[in-house]
Design a protein that fits this description.
Length: 196
């Protein structure tokens, strides 16, 4: 168990100093170590899911699509106490990967992930217990990917959800970025009458 904590600390340390290659290596070692442990120990699934999620982010940063898909498959196939917890875990992972794709300009690569995310999220939309800010970030990330494809109508539909469905009094940053993107989209569409 101490070796696992050692890998966690080194993975976090190298991530903090932006040595992503070493961070990835230690995250990969942690997951490999955990896959040899007793999977029935208390809290194993949660710890393993967190380790896999962190590894998945590193894999995405290096463009290791096959490894990302493998990690997503493992996360999906973990045992969860209920479908709500499973869907919450998946949405958080999808959101992080989607954010990576849009920040890297890999908009087309994001479309498959977004379609899968939309299916999971819309099936459970009324039940998922995410903070409104997390939902807003999720919508914003997807909107950015649609903007980059470009599919301005889909991008606008997600931005409109931020403005119409969520109360974001404490998340002015998300609201402001969404508003700026909405103005840019209207400009790109030639809707200059909607621009103040």
């Amino acid at each position: 168990e101490s070796l696992g904590y050692y890998y966690i600390l080194l993975g976090a340390y190298y991530r903090t100093i932006r040595d992503l290659q070493k961070s990835y290596a230690f995250r990969k070692k942690l997951v490999a170590l955990m896959e040899t442990e007793d999977k029935h120990s208390l809290g194993f699934n949660y710890k393993y899911r967190v380790a896999l999620s962190n590894l998945l982010i590193s894999q995405a940063e290096f463009g290791l699509t096959d490894e990302v898909n493998s990690s997503l498959h493992k996360i999906k196939n973990l045992e969860y106490p209920n479908s709500l917890e499973r869907d919450n875990a998946l949405i958080n992972v999808y959101n992080r990967v989607c954010s990576y794709y849009y920040l890297s300009g890999l908009f087309r690569e994001a479309m498959t992930l977004i379609r899968e995310t939309e299916q999971v999220f819309h099936l459970q939309e009324r039940k998922i217990m995410l903070h409104p800010r997390n939902i807003a970030v999720y919508y914003y990330n997807i909107s950015c990917c649609y903007f980059g494809v470009p599919d301005f109508n889909q991008a606008l539909s997600y931005l409109n959800r931020i403005f119409n469905e969520l109360k974001l009094e404490q998340s002015e940053d998300v609201y402001c970025f969404a508003h700026l993107l909405r103005l840019i989209i209207h400009y790109e569409k030639g809707n200059t009458d909607l621009i103040p």
